[in-house]
Design brief:
Elements (H helix, E strand, L loop, with lengths): L1 H15 E4 L12 E4 L7 H8 L5 E6 L6 H9 L2 E4 L6 H12 L3 E4 L20 H6 L3 E7 L4 H6 L4 E7 L3 E3 L8 H17 L20 E3 L1
Parallel strand pairs: 1-7, 2-5, 2-6, 3-4, 3-5
Antiparallel strand pairs: 6-7, 8-9
Length: 220
């Protein structure tokens, strides 16, 4: 059944969008890896989930989505982990760690919320916890163009979307326990790696690439 659902969604996605996913040749087929990217709108999940097949993709989404029966069924079929916002969701974190141990690709957005216009927001420090604890390599996976979907639909135009892959790295911290201040520095370094994959107009909060550092990153 899930293959049929994926096929239908993929058909409509390709009718609405012209997707340049040629850079996916630079993304391994086997994990585990953490995929860190930008978060523009509702299109992100189907776009990345279907484009990255047959890789085993796991992600997180706000638990409120599970209140809608159709969405709940789709989220379960796509192995999306519900996460409670506003507090540390230990159960969701545990499931994410387990998926990485099983060799999955875990997709996350350090922005933590939709930026809506394609321009990067400031990263949230809590998003580096999984990478810190798992020691799994992070690969930037970004996309742009999807912010124009509604505008183009009204004009019966297909939306051009580009997917770009960055260089893999791990978070390299010597301290036994990261402070909140250190997490802020680390997430900014991760965000600059994401920004570097994007065109200048999409870098938003991280537009000034002269501020980019890699003190806590080790490229692999």
């Amino acid at each position: 059944m899930i293959k049929i659902i994926n096929g239908i969604i993929n058909f409509f996605l390709k009718c609405l969008c012209k997707i340049d996913d040629s850079d996916l040749v630079n993304l391994p087929l086997e994990g585990p890896y953490i995929l860190a990217g930008n978060h523009i709108n509702f299109l992100d999940v189907p776009l990345l989930y279907l484009s990255l097949q047959p890789r085993p993709i796991i992600g997180m989404a706000k638990a409120e989505l599970w209140k809608v029966p159709v969405v709940k069924s789709l989220m379960k079929a796509w192995h999306v982990i519900p996460i409670k916002r506003g507090a540390a969701d230990v159960g969701a974190m545990r499931k994410a760690m387990e998926s990485l141990e099983e060799g999955a690709f875990f997709s996350l957005s350090p922005e933590g919320t939709r930026n809506k216009n394609g321009k990067l927001l400031k990263g949230r420090p809590g998003t580096v916890v999984i990478a810190e604890k798992s020691r799994v390599p992070i690969i930037p996976v970004v996309h742009w163009g999807g912010e124009n979907l509604k505008y183009n639909m009204k004009r019966l135009r297909r939306t051009k979307i580009t997917i770009k892959i960055g260089k893999p790295f791990i978070i390299d911290i010597q301290e036994e326990k990261m402070s909140q201040e250190l997490r802020k520095k680390v997430v900014d370094e991760v965000m600059y790696q994401i920004a570097e994959c994007l065109p200048e107009d999409y870098r938003g909060y991280y537009s000034d690439m002269s501020q980019k550092t890699t003190n806590y990153l080790k490229f692999v």
